[in-house]
Specification:
twelve-stranded antiparallel sheet; mainly beta; two-stranded antiparallel sheet
Length: 336
């Protein structure tokens, strides 16, 4: 076979087109590659050279058809913009919930095309679009009784504190679409039955939510949730009214098929602030989780199947005490 190929890859930081003080980063990656293989022998008649079959053809159209059917050709193309974001250029500036530095975005596209003697056309396309938001900040605590109570006997009340704002907020939504077509080549001249094109499609949306809150110096709460949904796709090739149907399903963010969330509380119980109990500590943890799964799509489309959705939940309560008997014994002169 006569093989030819080329591969071009480049990566660029488009943020360099902006002043450095802006802190803008737009990393781009591009790749284009092709592989072409022309066999020496005709795939339809492996004991005859391809150039002889082409020379025996009666017309230019027939020669082009033979050459195209014998060629093994593949082309791949991709372009990616990963983690587009703006850096925080002033470290002394306080973090705000609305800061543009909390956002980042990603876009990726790949295209694959192939044909050979058995495959008339094979096409694959993948799309990924993601937008994320992440906010992190050091909590600020308020102790309203700190200046009013001086006695260590009332340390349990004196050290009461709270925080008004969460220390962590995060959200992410990503769209992942895959589309492919595959059509086999009809190499039998006596077969007049058309070979149908097979399609493989998926369109998924994933949403992630999270919040972390130091309610006080000793009490921390974390809530995280994930929602996985599927965008309904019309059968066959997407065009015309089918494209409108796809957009309508996309506007609804698809159909949720899986959802789960977890809630965690961590509490350092202040028993060591009780007079005479400074030799003991207690850490309490409470966690709960919930999972929901949709019934299969065939059950949704056929009322005769009443499978129903599935839910599962659970909780865990954990207490970890630590007793320092050395500190306790030192309180008594007789056994110190």
């Amino acid at each position: 076979s006569d093989d030819q190929s080329y591969d071009v890859t480049t990566s660029m930081e488009l943020g360099k087109f902006f002043p450095d003080k802006k802190g803008i980063h737009i990393p781009m990656y591009i790749n284009v590659s092709t592989q072409t293989s022309m066999p020496q022998y005709d795939p339809a008649m492996p004991d005859v050279e391809l150039k002889q079959t082409i020379s025996n053809a009666k017309s230019q159209q027939e020669r082009d058809s033979i050459r195209s059917a014998a060629e093994d050709y593949t082309i791949r193309k991709s372009i990616n913009f990963t983690n587009i974001h703006k850096n925080r250029t002033d470290p002394t500036k306080p973090n705000h919930v609305w800061d543009i530095e909390n956002f980042n975005a990603t876009y990726a596209y790949t295209d694959y095309e192939h044909h050979d003697f058995t495959t008339l056309n094979e096409l694959q396309k993948t799309y990924k679009v993601a937008l994320a938001y992440n906010y992190n900040n050091q909590p600020k605590f308020y102790s309203p009784l700190n200046k009013l109570i001086k006695s260590n006997l009332l340390a349990l009340l004196r050290d009461v504190n709270y925080s008004l704002l969460p220390s962590r907020l995060n959200f992410q939504i990503s769209f992942d679409r895959f589309y492919s077509e595959n059509t086999l080549r009809n190499n039998d001249p006596n077969n007049f039955i058309p070979i149908p094109t097979s399609f493989n499609k998926s369109f998924n949306i994933t949403r992630v939510y999270g919040i972390g809150w130091n309610l006080s110096k000793s009490l921390q709460m974390d809530i995280d949730a994930t929602n996985f949904s599927v965008v309904g796709k019309p059968a066959g090739r997407i065009y015309g009214l089918k494209r409108d149907t796809l957009w309508e399903n996309l506007k609804k963010l698809g159909r949720t098929v899986n959802y789960n969330h977890t809630i965690n509380f961590n509490y350092n119980v202040p028993i060591n602030k009780i007079p005479g109990m400074d030799w003991a500590t207690l850490v309490a943890r409470y966690s709960t989780n919930f999972t929901w799964q949709s019934q299969p799509e065939f059950a949704l489309n056929t009322p005769d199947y009443n499978i129903g959705n599935s839910i599962q939940n659970g909780r865990t309560i954990q207490l970890n005490p630590t007793l320092n008997f050395v500190t306790l014994y030192n309180k008594f002169k007789a056994i110190r």
